[in-house]
Amino acid sequence: MDPVTLSRWQFGLTTVYHFLFVPLTLGLGWFVAYMQTRYYQTRDESWRKLAKFWGKLFLINFAIGVVTGIVQEFQFGMNWSEYSRYVGDIFGAPLAIEALMAFFLESTFLGVWIFGEGKVPEKVHLAAIWLVAIGSNLSALWILLANGWMQHPVGYVINEVTQRAELVDFFALAANPKGWLFFWHTIVSGFATASFLILGISAYHLARKQYVTEFKRSFQMAALVGLIASTLLFFSGHTNGQYMFETQPMKFAAIEAHWETSQPAEFSILTIGDLTGKREVWSIRVPKVLSFLACNNFDCEVRGVYDIQDEYAAKYGPGDYIPLMVVTYWTFRFMMTVGLLMILLSFLFLVATLKPYENAKWMKWVPWVLVLPYIANSSGWILTEMGRQPWIVQGLLTVEQAVSPNLTTLDLLISLLGYTVVYGSLAGAMFYLMKKYAVAGPDAALHESVDVEPEGGSLGDALPIGAQD
Amino acid sequence: MSYESLQILWFILIAILWIGFYFLEGFDFGVGMLLPFLGKKDEERRAIINTIGSVWDGNEVWLLTAGGATFAAFPHWYATMFSGFYLALFLLLIGLILRGISFEYRSKDSNRAWRNRFDWMIAIGSFLASLLLGAAFANLARGVPIDENMMYTGNLFTLLNPYGLIGGLTTVTVFVLHGANFLGLKLEGELRERVHKLSKKIYVAAAVITTLLLVATYFYTDITSKLGVNPGATPIASYLALLVTIFFINRKMEGWAFIMTALHIVLTQVTFFMLMFPRVMISSTNPAYSLTIYNASSSQYTLTVMSIVALIFVPIVLAYQGWSYYMFRKRIIADKQHLIY
Fold first, then answer.
1. Contact yes or no for B38/B48 (Cβ under 8 A)
2. Are A267 and A293 in contact (CB under 8 A)?
């Protein structure tokens, strides 16, 4: 494989992997902050247990998000040096601001939160977790403004002398609707992800009749927040789609397998393409719905993939401007289906909580819902990034032009293999810890495993946490 | 501000970020490397980790900010260096990942092998990161093959020259000494005694290899003949600061010993950036191909925007990070009742 393909795979894998952990960090931080605030106000032990329990899971997840985030910031220069040269004047700014404004805030106050209990005043300890939540969400804002610029470049000129794109209007970059729409969508997806994790784990304990007071509380809270968040996800997704229709018509058409321009446009429920992914074999379609998705109007014109391809070829020179449609089409449908299912489920859970529900038979199946947001989040991210292909910056620079020219296939095989092995092991350790603490319940989170097991203990049969003290 | 003064300002700001990173993360890399050797019992190891537990992540952000600021202010520097040092940076990232995750995960299971494995990952990750940073900076001073298009034309082995290796090993030993001095300040009881004994030995290694680096710099680099800014007595002061450390170690004046290694690290970095100026990457192929603050920088507009951002946020960051150090200023005892896991 050539360095461009390998660099793309590496960026794709490391980014999707990183984004597995990010939404939970974004959402769960607010929950923990809220629970700790409730304890601070009411002195109700259950709130303290909840804050500790979810706080522990938050930390296990946070750590892996942090360490995989460092790779993200470095690999623009490492793998995409020509991209960095061409747009660094613009793209570097939000990254630097992210570090200054958000990374310092979240990392410093996370340290205060972990180590400060009983050492700093309680109010300060409480403020620390709020600052962590604010910091991580601020970091999402700046990185999404950076990504928004790649999807919809604004506030720049091409400087003929330096042969690169240069920033002329910082406020256009900071107010780019693309970035803000991504931000809202990502923030609510954070709330939804956290809600579904909480629903799943709470249900696990409720089905076993453990810590009923605590987990009923978190279940109810998560059902409500989950319903609000997944409904908002639907609307923010819809707005994102409409703005995409305006700014990235090719991506929009590719998502819908919309081949030919039509007015009104029909929505594809199921399309089977041929092996090239660029010709349709068979499909089921509903009239007018795509027009509505594009512009809130059942009769507007939606341009098709072939038309846009011709337009781009005339504008940017000969080339293939159609993204890999089998990916854009299906990731969109995964995201939508799962998203709708999340609205439905959280609604049903919320209704169920109006009556006594903790003994319900269905409770033992609920833990599985926690996989849903992960499917939707990954699909959405792959969709938005692959839908931009072949561009790295829409209309300005292609991925092929952006890669570091000095890298060899061997360099990339080494790094790709290395990341795979390390990230794989991290996932194993993280999954093991998450499961252990989630299953053990709040008491284990209160009493940490201070003691190491006695000498001579063999690998793999760790003492249950909290059992020693 | 004029374009040129902005370029100079950003060179200085990035230098400060690197200096801050070396000073702060220098001791927590050192603490990481010492961890499995110094801590015999589990609670001792936990006490050692807790000396940096609340701050290491914030310290590491100095590196991220240095990276981000280089990207924003000198995109060509960022592009050439990061793509050129590809495998070295990849290994640095692996080191940072291993160590970062281990701080969080090592105490979350009571299994002895589990904890031991993460402790070693902290040490190995810290070692790898220090070695590679040192090697990278030594190569920056020495010059690396760069062509007329600002493209690095070497590979990983180009960086593994004797001078690069000496630079790497110097950084490792100096960080270990700096870490030991920091632990002397932060620990209490038997561990404090143990660190004290150990730091005398580390001092000898650090002093010898730093002297070697000094001599090698004279022979391997051109930066002594092509001064950017004349560093004057800075390198001498830096070397003396390291040498007098032993005086304070012997007298158990831990605060002063720490200040001296801190001074040594800071002044060494200051010397480096003064000698480099206005170059940011020296081409060993042809001096004319070197990247400078003038040909590698962002536009005047971007530098102005970033200056305003930095002016607002740097003081805020310094204030709360300083406050967090103040909050956790107490010494730590290796005793289960008092340790936070």
1. yes
2. yes
In this structure, how many other beta carbons lie within 10 angstroms of the beta carbon of residue A281?
9
- Taking CA atoms, what residue in A is nearest to B78? A77
Q: Is A151 on the interface with B (CB under 8 A)?
A: no
Instruction: State the pTM of this model.
Output: 0.92
A146 touches chain B (CB under 8 A): no
Q: Mind listing the pLDDT tens digit for each residue in A3-31? A: 899 999 999 999 999 999 999 999 999 99
Torsion of CA A182, A103, B105, A433, to 10 degrees: -20
Smallest Cα distance from A459 to chain B, Å: 6
pLDDT (tens digit per residue) in A167-189:
999 999 999 999 999 999 999 99
Nearest CB to B100: which of A63, A115, A462?
A63
Coil, strand or helix at A281: strand
How far apart are alpha carbons B13 and B3 in whole angstroms? 15
- B193 reaches A (C-beta below 8 A): no
Q: Report CA torsion sign: A239, A242, A248, A251.
A: positive
**Amino acid occupying residue A414:** I
Q: Best residue in B21, B56, B71, B105 to probe A by mutation, most A CBs within 10 Å?
A: B71
What Cα–Cα distance (Å) separates residue B141 from each residue in A399, B213, B269, B294? 33, 12, 11, 18
Domain boundaries, chain B: 3-327
In this prediction, residue A468 has a pLDDT band, given cuts at 50, 70 and 90, of very low
Do residue B54 and residue A115 have CB atoms under 8 angstroms apart?
yes
Instruction: Count CA atoms within 13 Å of residue A159 on its CB side.
Output: 19
Q: Is the peptide bond before A318 cis (omega within 30 degrees of 0)?
A: no
